[in-house]
Design brief:
6 helices; mainly alpha; DUF3140; 123 residues; DNA binding; 54% helix; DNA-binding
């Protein structure tokens, strides 16, 4: 269990390290955030956004021991890391505190305003 098909231990270790850096909200913080209107306001189309759905999945992953993660969990972790890294590179100028850019990242488990958060390409 916990093995991604075709993925060796080094790759899982790399994903786990990147995940720990990308996801800087705790399960409780993310769960609380996902209940807010701001969280629900971002995304495309009607219904639950991809980011909001991802956030619920991230909460589940954060509550699971690494040894018990499924192949799909590892794949989602890799997807989250990629999204956070790409989105950080698109950081708008100025105060981002109340922006859809920040709200979207928070749905994916990363608060760019949290102390110690990566500033993307604009450190």
């Amino acid at each position: 269990m916990g093995r991604v098909l075709g993925m060796d231990d080094d790759e899982r270790t790399s994903i786990a390290k990147d995940w720990d850096e990308a996801v800087n909200l705790t399960a409780k913080q993310l769960e609380d955030w996902l209940q807010t209107e701001e969280s629900k306001s971002v995304g495309q189309g009607d219904g639950e956004s991809t980011g909001h759905r991802s956030g619920r999945r991230i909460v589940e992953i954060l509550g699971t021991k690494r040894a018990d993660l499924s192949d799909a969990d590892w794949a989602h972790m890799r997807k989250v890391v990629g999204y956070v890294h790409r989105h950080l590179e698109q950081r708008p100028k100025g105060d981002v505190t109340e922006t859809n850019w920040r709200y979207s990242l928070m749905n994916w488990g990363h608060d760019p305003e949290k102390a110690g958060a990566s500033r993307g390409g604009r450190s």
